[in-house]
Specification:
The chain has 296 residues and is mainly α. The chain starts with a helix and ends with a helix. Helix 3 packs parallel to helix 8.
Amino acid sequence: MAMNDSVNILNSAYLAVEYIDSLMPDNPLQQPFKNAWNYMLDNYTKFQIATWGSLIVHEASYFLLCVPGFVFQFIPYMQKYKIQPDKPETWEKQWKCFKTLLFNHFFIQLPLICGTYYFTEYFNIPYEWDEMPRWYVLVAQCFGCAVIEDAWHYFLHRLLHHKRIYKYIHKVHHEFVSPFGMQAEYAHPLETLILGTGFFIGIVVFCNHVILLWAWVICRLMETIDVHSGYDVPLNPLHLVPFYAGARFHDFHHMNFIGNYASTFTWWDRIFGTDSQFIAYQEKEKKQKLVTKKAN
């Protein structure tokens, strides 16, 4: 009975969203996107699309999303939003990070990306425009992928902080006490494989078109670069996502080394009490601000 009720609720929600979508004006970008997509299908093989297309999507998305945080360091006005203003970025650290990223992207992640084509062939994942899911289905699928990845990340990330293995793997990522966006994928190769596995689980569960691979890559990079940005910028649209952790939440993890293990959402840390030090730190900050206001 409970299962039937849940299915009915989901069906009703789907129909409601579908109805609202039918009332919305046509997207002016849809036709150009359709033309570009069909051009790609006509001129490139599935292997080229799945492999080199996925690599281009990842690299372009990663470094473009890093641009705002990189630019912020040169804008004095933005420094008031920096979470750890006493620890500015340095060229030396950023260059070191960039070199490690190139190694991880092309020697660790690229071999994994090469398996994308075989994944889509094995599971008969379509590429055709006519089989592409509607935008609201894609959004729901990306959210589902994020929930799965977040659970995987919480427990495996917490395990990597165990004193017996921390110094061998995860310590590399924590070289930067004050993170910056480009550092999001700065990690030991084993960590890239261990925590990266969570990214693929959602794909296996939800993927019904190759577009989800790319949409989920962009969503995941958007989230991880944001939480590593080092800046808590107001009016961040990601803060509209329910239970979204954000930059201040993850920045504390880099500063404190303990707690706030989840990647995207706050619920696992709340359930297991691993956000207690963060909550105490926030309360202390609030009290200090009140004291400073009274003194002025």
